Amino acid sequence: MRVIPVIDVLNGIVVHAVRGKRREYQPLQSNLCKSVEPLEVAKAFKKLGFNELYIADLNAITRGSVNFQVLKRIVDETGLKLMVDAGVADLETAKKLLDSGVSKVVIGTETLHSKSFVGEAVRLFGSDRAIVSLDLKGDKVLVKLGFAGCKSPMCLLREFKEMGVSGVIVLDLTRVGSGEGVNADFLKKVLEDISIDVYVGGGVRDIKDLVELQNLGVSGVLVATALHSGKISMNDLKQARLL
Fold first, then answer.
1. Half-sphere exposure of 171 (CA within 13 A, CB side)
2. What is the pLDDT of residue 24?
3. What is the pLDDT of residue 114?
4. Dihedrals φ, ψ of 184, to 5°?
5. 192, 186 in Cβ contact below 8 A?
């Protein structure tokens, strides 16, 4: 299982994401890095031994303006593999992200206009470069107004699987930054019913949560708050053989 640090970028700085309430996000306060500059935070994670990052470009997700320059600089100066959610809903933007050096483009249901785009992206870029984020608020899937077809989590996951998606992020925004733990029961159901790589975001508290997720068979976990606060230390990760 891979532990993937998260950087949430809003208005050019790294912020502390809590429960998806983006208007209330404050500048990051971290034990790992004193700077709120995305490049400096990325460098800090690189120095600690991580080789990949998940980046949420919150301005792009909410307004559609992607900061390609910052992403390219992080790739060029750190060599980190980037998994990026920038509210992608068209092939041109996805291609620009990949051309900027991004390793995986995240297609989030929150900004998805049509399910057919998922199939198009997988066909054009490959399932190793396009990953879907099942964006949840509790047990409800976040989708755009007018989104047609089934909207239940399991139904959508089955459809994405049929489109050729090989990896999905289960991201519960109500748990992000909350320290409440993950929804293990739902994750078990996904892993048992659908043959797909599952990544988890939101709610991870400590190393025990990571070990539990590893035992469930999760492929990767997105972590931010627990790393920055020190509740998950580098020593913890090394002892659990997760770094």
1. 28
2. 74
3. 87
4. -65, -35
5. no
pLDDT exceeds 80 at position 132: yes
* Residue 134, Cβ density class (10 Å: 0-12 exposed, 13-18 middle, ≥19 buried): buried
Answer yes or no: are the C-beta atoms of 226 and 204 closer than 8 Å: yes
Closest by Cα among 48, 44, 94, 96 to 74: 44
pTM over 0.90: yes
Checking phi first, is residue 194 left (phi over 0); if not, alpha (psi -120 to 50) or beta? beta
**Which of 165, 239, 216, 191 has the alpha carbon at shortest distance from 1?**
216
Cα 222 to Cα 196: distance, rounded to the nearest angstrom: 17
φ, ψ for residue 113 (rounded to 5)?
-85, -35
Residues 174-220: pLDDT tens digits?
Answer: 888 777 788 889 999 999 999 999 999 988 999 999 999 999 999 99
Domain boundaries, the chain: 2-239
**DSSP at 128:** T
107/170 Cα distance (integer angstroms): 12
pLDDT at 145 over 70: no
Q: CATH number of the domain at 2-239, out of 3.40.1690.10, 3.40.50.2300, 3.90.180.10, 3.20.20.70?
A: 3.20.20.70
Please give the helix or strand (H or E) that residue 106 lies within, else none.
Answer: strand 104-108
